User: Fold these one by one.
Assistant:
Number 1:
Amino acid sequence: MIKVGDTLPEVSFAQLTADGMKNPTTSEVFAGKKVVLFAVPGAFTPTCSAAHLPGYIALADQIKAKGVDTIVCTAVNDAFVMKAWADSQNAEEITFLADGGGSFHKAIGLTMETADFGGLRSQRYAMIVDNGVVTLLNVEPPKTFEVSKAETILAAL
């Protein structure tokens, strides 16, 4: 599993924008920037939609005021699902990056297998990344939601 001090691996994400499908790479997203990255097991799932994403939307201005350039949400979902979820949550403050095949999450060692519930998914976590290097990593134990909350990350900034 990735740890504090490690550099994020180079992968491509999928992002559906007003200009069509984009495939930003890790270096394009993180190089020269301070980024808060949080991951959810799945778009539209209960905790993710009711608490995790809404917390980051509500605190986006305060997080960015601490020197964060971008807040990124990722999941092992396709770009169409991520865009629909972003739109349904009015989440203009957040950048949504789809990891449809799980290549990013496999590379950082933060996947979980949910079998018939959805197959390969991301674990729930949040990290602070400075110029591609992980400076904080908070991974949730199964069935918990504490250390990856927006409030926890804001306090750590």
Number 2:
Amino acid sequence: MSPPIRRPTYPLAHATRRKPRRIPLVLRFYKGAIHNLIVVPVTLHSLFTALVVYLDRNVWGALGLPPTIIPSLSIVVGLMLVFRNQTSYDRFWTGRNCLTTVGTCVRNLARSFLASARGKGADAQLTDEERADTEKIIRVLVAILYAIKHNLRAEFNIPPASLAHYPPHARPNTSRPVSRAVSRRNSSEDGSFDSETLSTAKNEYVALLPDGLMGYEDQGLGLPLQLTVLVESFVRRGYERGWFHGPQASQMTVQINTLVDAYGRMETIRSTPIPVAHLIHQKQVLLLFCCVLPFATVDDFGWWAVPIVAIVAFTLYGIEGIGVQLEDPFGYDKNDIKMDGIIEDTRQELMVLLDEWRTKVEGRGTGLGGMFD
């Protein structure tokens, strides 16, 4: 009897879930491949090589260059591509570590809040206001993860406070996140937005936010920072209620500062592209090398120079295309960080903690087997 196959459970279920590979990676040309980015340059270089071979064989007959020119150019091309890919993967890896830091800080804060939120005395119960306040802040912690994700993807989050003076029936439907690029394309000259376009965006975490919360993104304040103010205020209220002592409250503030710092580093990756001078020179060097290669191979290989140049162009432009995809790792591409799954896993964890804590404070159980005692 074969041993049972381990199935992923809820811890990391969304982030690590994989489908069985039915096609070997060497034969895959979609779902994560970068062939769509390089098919045009590879095709053009192949056609150019065919033209060079035709002219060399049938028109002029003396288009060949010494093959010794190739090694000197290949060294430069290799060094530039190595730098490009190493820099891009470093941005990808740093972004993933920063997301882990943000998730760790949210977990630590939620654990401390739930374990410390209790009434004074042996049999004292939390008031309705204190219970509602604690539940609200746990949801805010989860909402911070979604707010960071949407801000890194340049998407709106919640209605701006500048719309507060409008009657409720006259406000644009901005209760769901929407891409700023889409919003600009659908905005009129007076600044209003197409509500139909806004209503088609995702609605992942609006229910986690406090009722009536308005945003200030149109004034330059990101929602993640706005939500951390609510968390900091809860730490102060917990200290005044006697839930946290001074050093503990100080450590919670450190966790909030660490979260904001990690988000700031993710913003740096998102808003700082590779210098354009490097990108221009790299593209030009790649183009020069692949255009010189047909002249250096036509005498020795004839028509075989066409597939040879196509293979070389496929390799070099493919490496460059990988660097392009990894440069901004916070989007929706197959090769980007699995932000959706990672955040869903953290949300699941915190919601279980919150449900068990609610079971404990309502007297319906011990809460995680007595863990909240």
Number 3:
Amino acid sequence: MHKICTDIVIEAPINEVWDLLTDFHNFETWNPFITKIKGKLELGSKLEVHLHPPGTKGIDMSPVITKVEPFNEFRWIGNLWVKGIFDGEHAFRLEELENGRTRLIQCERFKGILAPLILYVLGEKTRAGFEKMNSSLKNECEKRNKKGFTQCVPSA
């Protein structure tokens, strides 16, 4: 099994980070990596997701949500083409830190026949996409937090 994990500390309370991270409708306004998510944040819900790793045209996927713990974690599992070829379980975890800070941990575990080959070609671009998303989430939340908003939602 192959895994890519990144994390970042955000100077904003966990509830504000969660609010932005789960506001799928507005992903395109701040998120350079996951530029679209359609669907409900509910266990078993099928999503429409557009991933855009840097230097690629992007890819559309239809993962299924496998875990939702408000203010803590959500996960989905998806596959490319057919299950068993290139499967990924994507997780977003939040940890509450002292002084109103939050750690975001974004990981994906890959498996399947083509996982080693695809990760050889796209692994670093995928990691870069995670890091760009993390930084954008941090910037948006911290900008909102400094302005005294009660929720960390992107500007229209």
Number 4:
Amino acid sequence: MKSLRPGDLAPEFALPDQTGCMRSLTALLEEGSVVLFFYPAALSAGCTKEACHFRDLRAELAAVGAQPVGISMDSVEAQARFDGKESLGMPLLSDADGAVATAYGVRRKYLTPVKRATFVIAPDRRITEVVQSEWSMDRHADAALKALGAPVAR
């Protein structure tokens, strides 16, 4: 399956976060836009850099009515360790069987379990931006902010 594109309807999901609380896309969107970022592995160097950049830009995202939500195939326990170590303070969802990654077209068979990809999802579940970059960890949050109409400070 190809990755979803701007204009596509984001697939609904319900997954546990790092505390075990079930989170659905519909419920997350009740608070505004969702910046859903898929990352290959909690606590790895690149994923830590990416997630920390989203953490550091939470206020800017909130100012434009959006919240970051991380998702990987790591267990709930691994997500909890990741959040605890890095003080991420955002939902980190456990897609242990990869069903959501498959639905979003980012599941892999080789290298890492998922592609590094970010989907900016409007409250009506329409995808407004897709960011794919395996090597530029800061690009995901910066491009999401730009897509949401926020200035990106450098």
